[in-house]
Amino acid sequence: MAMDEPVSIETITKLKQQAETISSEGDLESALALLDRAEALAQTLGDPLAMGLVWRGRAHAWQVHSFYETSLEAVNQAVAIYEAHGTPADVAKAQVTAVYKLGVMGRFDEAFALADRIRPHFINDHFFQAVLAENLAPLYRWTSQYKRAIETYEQAWSQFTELAMPLRATHALHNIGVAAREMDDLSLAHDCFMRAYPQYTATNNILAMLKTQFNLARLCVRQNQLQTAMTHLAQARADAEHLPSGSPNVAYVDVYQARVYQALNQPHEAEQLLRRALILFVQSGWQLDIIKTHIELGHLLAESQVLETQAEGLACLEKAAQQLAGLQMPLLSASVQLSQAELLLRLQRTDEAINQAQQAYKLFIKTNLPLRGAQARIVWADCCWRQQPGTARQHYEAALEVIGETIPLLAARCWRGLGRLAQQSGESLAAERAYEQAVQMLNSVRRALGSHQHQAGFLKDKQTITSELLAALHQQPEAAEKLFTWVERFKATSLADLLFRQPLDNNTDANLQSLIGEREEVGAALDRHWSDLTFQSSDSVNELSQRGVAPALRDTHQIETISSLTRHLQLLDAQIAQHQDNAYAWRDGITIDSGHIHSLLDEQTILVSYYATDERLHALTVTQQPGDIRIHALPATWHDVARQWQQTRRRVMRPGSSQPDVQQRLSRLWQMLIAPLESRLQGKARLLILPHRHLFHIPFASLYNDQRQQYLVEIWQPQQAPSATIWAYCRQRKTGKKPPLLLGYPGVRGQANYLEAVSGEVEHLSRLWPQATVLLDEAATRTRFWDAAPGCAIIHLAGHIHYDGDDPLASGMPLADGRWLRASDLYLRYGQLAGATVVLSGCESARVELAGSDVLGLTSAFLYAGATTLVAGLWKVDDVATAVLMQAFYQAFSQGQHVAQALQSAQLHLLHQKSYAHPYYWAPFTLNGGSPHLATV
């Protein structure tokens, strides 16, 4: 406005409109500053109606930023002015937005009464008819009157369109989508959101863009399209960066990103986001969002295996139920009841769970929400399938009829229930068919996820379906070949799928290049923050306080920053993987079958594949002879084995512990895992072991036969693979042709954790292979590694290797340039290490996270990147003993021995030396993959 422009009501109206526009774009502070200027002009003008305009502008600005009580106070200020100086129509216009504000605060009776009172004043005013409709429609949504809500939004959309007000019309269109989603019309909801977002983008309406992406993500979560949901949430978070710092609208993104993390079995990340969102909602006084977040948090905590955490989850749900008691919101109440039913079922309080599920079902049906009603029926059926199989079957089948394949996870739950009913009645074939349908539903969701970490994490809590299907197969006669096929399908499912993809196209497009560039920046920032930590990564946060308040606060901040950067990195990895998927097709369901496996085994090798059914551990043994597959029932559950190994591990990892005591404990594991197969293994030289769950942590070479007084490695050459399919695939890789790459980074000289033996280890190997590329000390950088590694026959990495149990793909090796070589980096290098035998001469390099049927860590990452074989360690080892073992290993290797034979020779070399005979020194090293001969290297 020009300085010499005369003050008028039009001037103040223009300032009000500018402030409303600025506020809608997310800048509340500037909007309120404009309105303060308008108030000063109104005082100069001396027109009370002009002051009413100012208060209406403030009400709008505060409402846009969800300060509802403050906004309602501003409305009341305007109303008081209009009642004293204006007309009844002016009062009604000032009150129209109060309808929405009262509703969002749960004061529905007041809101509906106010709408009825002011409606007659707008009979001839189409604009305010539309404004009243857009403020009234949410009340119908919140009170579960969805059809009426959509009709009211459509009225607003039509009238704003006729009035040539495209932005207001787009708001109405977006809200039709919200109501459609809530009434389970997912197709209409998706159409509305997709039409609204480009229009918001064209006008740069940041808050609306954010909410539209957020709602698209919510829709995808409902339909189990988790990867697409993450993409929408990434866009929403990018849009939110343009909002003022601390805007509570960002908390919406946190809540639904938490839902995705929960579905991917990353509860720690989900809990962090929900608690952060709850703080923002409480600070803003957003009562409905506080209730919804309590529901989400309760649902998450309910899935814990810890009773105290489950109790906290139940308390969250009860708190939400109490907060809802005074509100007329039956849909939200039913959602709480359904979550309570799920938790009560987990706590085996079946009668209470059935009661809550029944009440939720009735409310969902009453409000015409068939999909949610079907979900309540599934919980109901899960409660009663053992005692009332007929009732359970009726509920499962009715739910399936409603769901179809719309929501695969719910469909999988129904098929699993039907499988359990069939198995309970002895119908093993019907049970197998039902379980197979459940597996197909789960795989349809899993394969839509881009990254291995997300795929494996998704399956982590779904292993009961696997064990139940295998138990059903055990009821069938002559089931060995079928069992082998099914067991193989379930082993390392996601990694096997990923390995069978077509090689990446080196010609990446601009979008992919941008994602990779952003990932490099985030990765560099993550490495810097790790370097800045003032404690070792193995320390706990609680131990920080021992060093004083300042270091504790600094390190806690670093941990929070690292957590945020890690989440960002995971999201980028998933986006990159999804982007790359367009270049090639999945090879659906490829697994090696029982007929093919025999031809890949030689007469000296026997395959041992472990698996579990209903917690009972079994093994399949397979030889070279066609049809020679046998089933072995083992005298333990995998829980028994896990407990025994935990007790044994503490002694194995202490070199000063009594060797006879260690041998006695290792002999118990022999009795559980090897003794039942012993007669079958006689006459073989090599064991190809396919572990199951916790068996990946056990060093099979050290299992002890107390009768023969020999370790397993003294009898056989053990090697491992995540699955026979992956083992066969690794064997097909051609050996690299370039000379070995020897990299050693011992750390910073003078520091306590400096590895003195690393330099000597690498220098000894360089004398064994004079033509090798050597990257030692400051030359051991990440850039030089990737320049030299592709095509090498052998890659030897010596130094500190850190295993991250919370985020296994963050595990890796710090290098000389302050950067890390992480497992997640290797997932961007598909096939670039093709044909290499990789040896990780460092601590815990073979440790993995057991996620579903998959293993996550450096093992899976190097196999994905192309390694044929990986030799790595299970625990923190003595660096001098490791150097001795590596020298013996490569000496045997260079003389043409098979990798498995060379590792056996090296372990026996240490075992037969008094100073290194304890399993601590030689047992941790395992061999994974195809283990070729490398006599030509």
What does this structure look like?
The strands form 5 sheets. The chain has a 6-stranded mixed sheet with strand order 9-8-10-13-16-17, with helices on both faces. It has a 5-stranded mixed sheet with strand order 3-2-1-4-7, with helices on both faces. The chain is 61% helix and 9% strand. It is built from 41 helices and 17 strands. Helix 1 runs antiparallel to helix 2 (28-45). It has 937 residues and is an alpha/beta fold. Mean pLDDT is 84; it is low at 534-553, 581-589 and 933-937.
List the helices and strands and how they pair.
Layout: H1 9-24, H2 28-45, H3 48-64, H4 68-85, H5 88-95, H6 98-104, H7 108-118, H8 126-142, H9 146-162, H10 166-182, H11 186-202, H12 206-222, H13 226-240, H14 250-263, H15 267-284, H16 287-302, H17 307-324, H18 330-346, H19 350-366, H20 370-384, H21 389-403, H22 408-424, H23 428-446, H24 452-459, H25 463-474, H26 480-490, H27 493-499, H28 510-532, H29 549-580, H30 594-600, E1 605-613, E2 616-622, E3 629-637, H31 638-652, H32 659-673, H33 678-681, E4 686-690, E5 704-705, E6 710-711, E7 717-720, H34 724-732, E8 741-745, H35 757-768, E9 773-776, H36 782-788, E10 794-799, E11 812-814, E12 820-822, H37 823-826, E13 837-841, E14 848-851, E15 854-857, H38 858-864, E16 869-873, H39 879-894, H40 899-911, H41 919-922, E17 925-929
Parallel strand pairs: 1-4, 4-7, 8-9, 8-10, 10-13, 13-16
Antiparallel strand pairs: 1-2, 2-3, 5-6, 11-12, 14-15, 16-17
